[in-house]
Amino acid sequence: MTIHSLQDTTVLHNGVKMPWFGLGLFKVEEGAELVNAIKHAIKHGYRSIDTAAIYQNEQGVGQGIREVLEETGLSREELFITSKVWNADLGYESTLAAYEESLNKLGLEYLDLYLVHWPVAGKYKDAWRALETLYKEGRVKAIGVSNFQIHHLQDIMKDAEIKPMVNQVEYHPRLTQKELQTFCQEHGIQLEAWSPLMQGQLLDNETLQSIANKHNKSIAQIILRWDLQNGVVTIPKSTKEQRIVENASIFDFELSKDEMKQIDSLNENHRIGPDPDHFDF
């Protein structure tokens, strides 16, 4: 798979184009740092921004988007904005209300992608019906899920009118989720990585350092390139302009098949976030 730039997209099963690379904003608090991170990212070519209701930063995200559109002359349609419904709001009516609240905070008329954040048993199916309603009404461009295992996806697709377009999960060299990725590929569901850099825990790995040295790249750049070559959308988080630029400087080299296998072999099924099957919701 050849991806040449930050604007390159994967086509979701409903025909919507989603950038392969974006800016994640988990745990970035409201304020100037957040607004500036969004502005730096978009000015340096990013087109995808990922937030969530539980991050409590949607207002700042909206401010950053408005300011950068004004400063650059880009249009809203050129951006791809994702948010997620939190566990406390899962349910049909409550999810519809949560969507409105997210839009109001962001100051947007629509989202490009709206996700069910976690598969809370007994609740996520009603939430999914709400997302289907929003989608059928043309209020959101694409809908999907986050942190869903194979059995959750199978369960939701039994009754769904529309199957998820995206599944955003924890994904990095210590948690390669090969079975889940294969399942998603077979069903036309795009896999997306959160915490692709394992919150910095891989940045002293000898195998990755050796590969990085060969390509004159950082370990972070190697991991993010591995994501893309595996066909996984990736959204590394950073608020520093230099790091935002560095993370995205991965389109001028390619990992060999052997290097890809070496990185795959680091898998230990090790999570740094909650296990979706044993999460205290």
Automatic annotation (TrEMBL):
The protein's name in its UniProt record: Aldo/keto reductase
Keywords for this protein: NADP, Oxidoreductase
NADP-dependent oxidoreductase domain: residues covered: 32-268
Pfam families xrefs: Aldo_ket_red
Annotated SUPFAM superfamilies: NAD(P)-linked oxidoreductase
Domain of life: Bacteria
Family: Belongs to the aldo/keto reductase family.
Positions of transmembrane segments: none
Organism of provenance: Ectobacillus antri
PROSITE patterns in the cross-refs: ALDOKETO_REDUCTASE_1, ALDOKETO_REDUCTASE_2, ALDOKETO_REDUCTASE_3
InterPro entries for the chain: AKR, AKR5G, Aldo/ket_reductase_CS, NAD(P)_OxRdtase_dom_sf, NADP_OxRdtase_dom
